[in-house]
Prior knowledge:
The chain is an all-alpha fold. The protein has 13 helices and no strands. The model has no long low-confidence stretch (mean pLDDT 76). It is a multi-pass membrane protein.
Amino acid sequence: MKYALRKLGMLLLTLWAAVTLNFFLPRLMPGSPADAAIAKLSQNGPVSAATRAAIEAQLGVPGGNLFEQYVHYLQQVVTLDFGVSFTFYPEKVSDLVLTALPYTLVLVGLVTILAFVIGTLIGILAAWKRGTWMDTLPTLGGSFLSAFPYFWIALLLLFFAGYVGHLFPTSGASSPTAVPEFSFSFIADLIYHATLPALTILITSLGGWILGMRNAMINTLGDDYVTFAEANGLRGRTVAIKYAARNAILPNLTGFGLALGGVVGGSILVEQVYGYPGIGYLLYNAVVNQDYPLMQALFLMITVSVLIANFLVDILYGVLDPRTRR
């Protein structure tokens, strides 16, 4: 219980620090959203102070000193009201996030879980069968795939499977004529459009899970308790899963917690390449257009999800390895 309370206290302290940093980071960037709008108007001549004030009021640029803005920002965090987006004016930030979040959770979330499960199982098999082709093939394949960045694989799949082969759509999350409803045809259309982005994330992330689990398990297989279990005549599968893999999975579990927490942030490069309307796509537009309200909402959501994922992993660590509770 003390272990969980200590971790909870660290979570709350880190959350406050992240919220405060999230407030100051956008304001350290040069310029403002009003400057971008004024730059377009100033092509026809200089803009008066009254016009600038009207543009700032229309965009909802925060006024007052920095402390007043910080207090107002904390109130927004508590009420989850981040105002109106500068980029997609007059859309509310909360509406934009709620619209994009399901696409990212389904695409990045499911693929991350799938890659972790498949990669961990293959890593266990490769370590247990080390020195054979069942070890060499996944190790070399994982190393080869991990060397390529997300956007490069995305561009290759987009060119060959989209533009050349016409096998999959090249952008969007659904067909322009699709009607959003809970039906087989609409769900099939969503899966069809998400296939290429999902393959991109799966291909580039699978190798890391394989190599991480294999290396950790090979170290574990040399421990005395594994040798003792084998000497007692236990089946190989029992030794591999219940003895070696249970301890070897802890480093991979930490990485999985970070990856799962980062799911909410989406995959910015992949979503940009495929024009997929997820959180990563929103975040890119918010940064480019210096959209403070949208940036702060997205950064806060990503930060909170990562912190909560790490907290759950810490608790799970205490269950799997009682030594961490001391």
